[in-house]
Amino acid sequence: EVQLVESGGGLVQPGRSLRLSCAASGFSFDDYAMHWVRQAPGKGLEWVSYINYNSGSTGYADSVKGRFIISRDNAKNSLYLQMNSLRAEDTALYYCAKDYSSSSVGAFEIWGQGTMVSVSS
Amino acid sequence: SSELTQDPAVSVALGQTIRITCQGDSLRTYYASWYQQKPGQAPVFVFYGKNIRPSGIPDRFSGSSSGNTASLTITGAQAEDEADYYCNSRDSSANHVVFGGGTKLTVL
């Protein structure tokens, strides 16, 4: 079964850091680009970041550029998001998603169930 | 970066056909993808590009595109199709992806 399982969310104070993880199974992880997408409570979907199949290319939304770092470990079938200098507006459910392609066509074929990040003092 | 525009809400009578649209400059260059999201659930990939429908998605879901507008058509809407629908595409900015604001579909 193709599956993505996120972890690492929680309550954190503004300005602090958090690292999210996404464990992939059921497909050849190192063949596909991966993404992080977030959804603030009651709001729509917002793309956060992307990494291609071999970590050779990454991209970030303007709202997180310079604060978040995406990475992957293909040997561990895992995707990560290091979130630094967190702000209240980063509060959201964070999903990892598998792209349809090895680079990024922006088609998110498989989604995890998400991990909640709350930024508050 | 570019934007994708969707109608906030649409409705359709049970068994009728509805077209949900998505407009944006990026769609002149890149294909759109479509996702269905029901309350409390993760989004589900329902269509991509001209003709890619994932396995398990009913064939009443179809996609099309013309110019800067992509459309998701549900032919013979069912009660279980009531959900939020989001479009997205690659962005003209390098390595970016953009989402539409979502359309809430009500099946009457």
Put the structure in a nutshell:
The complex is a heterodimer of chains A (121) and B (108). With 121 residues, chain A is mainly beta. Chain A has strands at residues 3-7, 10-12, 18-25, 34-39, 45-51, 58-60, 68-73, 78-83, 92-99, 108-111, 115-119.
Task: Tag the structure with descriptive keywords.
heterodimer, A: about 120 residues, mainly beta, 7-stranded mixed β-sheet, 4-stranded antiparallel β-sheet, about 0% helix, globular, B: about 110 residues
Number of strands of chain A: 11
Number of discrete helical segments of chain A: 0
Helix run count of chain B: 0
Give Rg of chain B in angstroms.
13 Å
Radius of gyration of chain A: 13 Å
Please state the average pLDDT score of chain A. 96
Oligomeric state, counting identical vs distinct chains: heterodimer
**Parts with pLDDT < 50 across at least 5 consecutive residues of chain B:** none
| Major sheet of chain A | 7 strands, mixed
Q: Describe the global form of chain A.
A: globular
> Termini separation of chain B (Å)?
36 Å
Structure description:
The complex is a heterodimer of chains A (about 120) and B (about 110). Chain A has strands at about 5, 10, 20-25, 35-40, 45-50, 60, 70-75, 80-85, 90-100, 110, 115-120. By secondary structure, chain A is mainly β. The model of chain A has no long low-confidence stretch (mean pLDDT about 95). In chain A, strands 2, 4, 5, 6, 9, 10 and 11 form a seven-stranded mixed beta sheet that branches. In chain A, strands 1-3-8-7 form a four-stranded antiparallel beta sheet, with no helix packed on it. Chain B has no helices and nine strands. Chain B is globular and about 40 Å long. The model of chain B has no long low-confidence stretch (mean pLDDT about 95). Helix content of chain B is about 0%, strand content about 45%.
